[in-house]
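Our consortium's second objective concerns turning raw sequence data into structural hypotheses that experimental partners can test. To show how far this objective has progressed, the report includes one record in full. It was chosen at random from the queue rather than selected for favorable results. The single chain below, 162 residues long, was entered without modification.
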Amino acid sequence: MFFPFPHKIYKDVTSITPNVLKSLGVKGLLLDIDGTLARTREAEPKEDVARWLKMMKESGIALFVLSNNKSPVRTEGFAKSIGCGWMHRSRKPGRAGFMEASRILGIPPSELAIVGDQIYTDVLGGLRCGMKAIMVQSSDTYLWYFPFRRLIELPFRYERKK
């Protein structure tokens, strides 16, 4: 039986280090936007997240924005602000978007990690494709449905056992 436990859980993306990624065999990150890199209504990352993204690039980690956002304008604008490739309407947790991002980056799924704030889209989709899954606490806690979402994710908000 398959359970969507993430490999690692962090407070936010800035807590993830290149050393942790290298220890997991990760050469590239697929990044969710809303709730992960920024709040839903923010057009670009805050300064600390921008510094973290720069550090990842300087460490040789490839970056790619993989979003379920329906707006190509939002996704493209955000990805351009951080200087990486992107895909909107990726239909996470479906496999197609994850696999297309892997193809575009030229990195096999086993060497990629998805970084996101949701178990049933980001974590589940990445795991289905053989990727590492890194979960962060959502920055979108102000949304009306947030408490309900957290409640249904609760059984899986633990790191994957070895």
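The partners drew two points from this record. The longest strand covers residues 62-66. The chain has a mean pLDDT of 91. Both points have been shared with the crystallography group to help prioritize constructs.
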